[in-house]
Amino acid sequence: MTEDKRRRYSSQVVDGTGKAPGRAMLRAVGFESADFAKPQIGIGSTWSMVTPCNMHINRLAEEAGQGADAAGGKSVIFNTITVSDGIANGTEGMKYSLVSREVIADSIEAVAGCQGFDGLVTIGGCDKNMPGCVMGMARLNRPSVFVYGGTILPGAGHTDIISVFEAVGACAKGDMNLIELKQIEETAIPGPGSCGGMYTANTMASAIEAMGMSLPGSSAQNATSDSKLEDCRAAGAAVLNLLEKDLKPRDIMTREAFENAITVVIALGGSTNAVLHLLAMASTVDVELSLQDFARIGERVPVLADLRPSGQYMMSELVAIGGILPLMKLLLDAGLLHGDCMTVTGTTLADNLAQVAPYPQGQEIIRALNNPIKRDSHLRILYGNLAPDGAVAKITGKEGTRFSGRARVFHSEEDAQASIIGGSVVAGDVVVIRYEGPRGGPGMREMLSPTSAIMGRGLGSDVALITDGRFSGGSHGFVVGHVAPEAAEGGPIALVEDGDHITIDAEANSIDLQVSEEQLQERRARWQPPQPRYSRGLLAKYARTVTSASRGAVTDMP
Fold it and tell me: Which listed residue, of 249, 334, 454, 531, carries a Cα 20 to 30 Å from 63's Cα?
């Protein structure tokens, strides 16, 4: 490929006499004369001191820039935002979390599109960063590589952020005193990196690598490791290779690549948020993907990883035995992955995995295919008169596969949390938290505080929770989210009343309200749509534009 083709976009910004003003400004930020003839590589950094997930990413961005420069490009580092789910959970501020995914995608598109970058590296840590980064790169469809910021190391006593959330519930129950709670609070988060279990950050990093948009191994590295610095340098250089090959996100993010991502998420026991984010990413590149695809693939893919939140181990322990590459090789050899999918290496997934060694003998984190933790997916796609457009549950089987109980209805997360902590939610209840959907919340908050309180109070097998909101990757128990249509749109979840009988069946994949159709029609005639909670600003704009959770909750649908 000629130099002009590699500089398809930057040449429009810096070439010719008329672009002297632009060159003058770039000289002030470090360009020299020779740099104007090089492909410009934007390095999108999500660095922030808002959260430990992203506090180290400035160093990673610098390493990626050095990799791009050494390979013959000219790197330009720019920032986008991050917010912290772990800090905001249980507050009104959590409504901005999912919204931030769209802001990140918008800002990457805006900066790179305006500045004329020829290629991109983006680096994400906290979970919304990752799909946001990939969506921004995919919209522009320029040669791009995503880098994961890496996982955090365990805290004292094998603790992590979920240990702290669940300690709050245990303290409320009286099983833990305030001194013990403070000890966990002070030691569970030892430094940089994303939350340490197979929560949403590690889930999405793994999915993006399986999709082919990260270099092999990027998703399973400790945040503070030399291997993560090397991954960043290699990513910067890889974009120059992609420019030579004219290989772009839409060449990589095919339907088969999304099926690979779904397969790996299931095998790892990953977060329900992967459903939401993969639907959104597929929408961005016009790939047809639906809830039914998760159900179809889930019928043949087992859960193999004994990772938190429902398992024992942390991501750093999976890193120590080889990460996800041996798992992907295992799945490929079993015919469960599409090996001919192209990746950001410029070669296929099968080529990338050809020399990968198996896990060491005696490890207990990843099970053999003939000895799975669960023979099919833990991500259950449920339908019924309570969720005509579908709902998403994370049910490993440890909590059972069927729950039937009486509804306890709440119109917000805060009201539900107060009742759970206060002890008025008891065994046999189905907690219903509504008006927390993408539009009604707005922002589809994670119900991590209520689910953690349920677990902390020892009710994980005795209480179910359903919501038109969503869950943290750290949530576990008998939980069902993404109920669609949501309550604010007049979905059946808006019609549930205290004491109604609800049955959730993860074998039949059904969720039903045991109320006659005639009664539901009477209730619907009385139902009034709620007033929007915000009339101006970002949340109001989001509520006006966002699609259903069953379509990924995106804001740029044509």
Answer: 249
What pLDDT band is residue 4 in, cutting at 50, 70 and 90?
low
**Pairing verdict, β 478-484 and 40-45:** unpaired
Residue 374 is inside which H or E element, if any?
Answer: none
DSSP 356: P
Per-residue three-class SS string for 248-315: CHHHHCCHHHHHHHHHHHHHHCCCCHHHHHHHHHHHHCCCCCCHHHHHHHHCCCCECECECCCCCECH
Residue 512 identity: D
Mean pLDDT of the chain: 96
| Lookup: tokens for 481 | 């989210």
Query: Quick one: which of 439, 411, 434 has its CA closest to 534?
Result: 439
Mean pLDDT over residues 384-406, rounded? 93
pLDDT band at residue 173, thresholds of 50, 70 and 90?
Answer: confident
Terminal-to-terminal C-alpha distance of the chain:
34
| AA letter at 85 | D
Phi, psi of 380 (to 5 degrees): -100, 125
pTM over 0.90: yes
Distance from C-alpha of 265 to C-alpha of 293, rounded to nearest angstrom:
13
Active site residues: 472
Residue given tokens 């917010």 in the structure block = 83
Q: Which phi-psi region, left, alpha or beta, contains residue 296 (left: φ > 0; alpha: ψ -120 to 50)?
A: alpha
